[in-house]
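Running this now, will post back.
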Amino acid sequence: MEATAPATMQNVRETWPLYDTAQIGPGVSSPQGYPSYYSLANLEDIPFFSVRNKAEVGLAYTNKDNKDSMPFVYYIQSIGVHLLSAPRLNTLSGQPTYADTAEMNSVRLFESLLPYHMGVILKIQEDEKLQSTVEFTPPGTGAFSYTGGAAPQLVQSFSMGWPSLGNRFAFIEPIAVPRTATLTVSLKPSAYAKYLLSHMVGPLSNLILVDNPAAEVPAEFSAKECALIRVTLNGMREVQQRGALHR
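Update: finished.
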């Protein structure tokens, strides 16, 4: 006789963000990401949610267990794309990183100009649910910083919009993603974006830290820098109700 689930067993919806991150920096390779800004210059698209999973890169960079399909029904409520460049700060030796250097200009371009020259496509299977620009899909998250100090070049960083969860591209009606369907987001750099990327310096291995902060005379070393492109989806997943909640 075929077993049947109790009547109280049912699927419920719960808030569940999805995110995927491409790292950019020295020593980075697939599936984690790319070794430099320059390495993005020849790409027709930069894919997300289909090239890495949590076991490969860790929870800090994606929470997708399966890069080939969705393990549950999902309802997308909003999307955000965050371009976060490697930081340019003072060194411990007191030598400033001047704002006019090529590396600082790369930081400026990556966060504040490239979003206006990159398209973004959200697809469920082969059905395109969104065609837009990165500038029109801000992340609504992240640190917000500013320029300050008597010498402005000493502290200077950028942000893709005010970090408020309302500052995202929200769909009027949630987009339903069937279980086992493929979900992909692709960034499409324009010819001008590729031109800029092909001439941008970094990220480099010169973020000055110390190898032993507890030492009497700490020695400096150059740490690897890492920029990020992160795509986030806010929404709800449909899962079986937990056993403790059954009546």
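The first strand starts at residue 11 and ends at 15. More later if anyone needs it.
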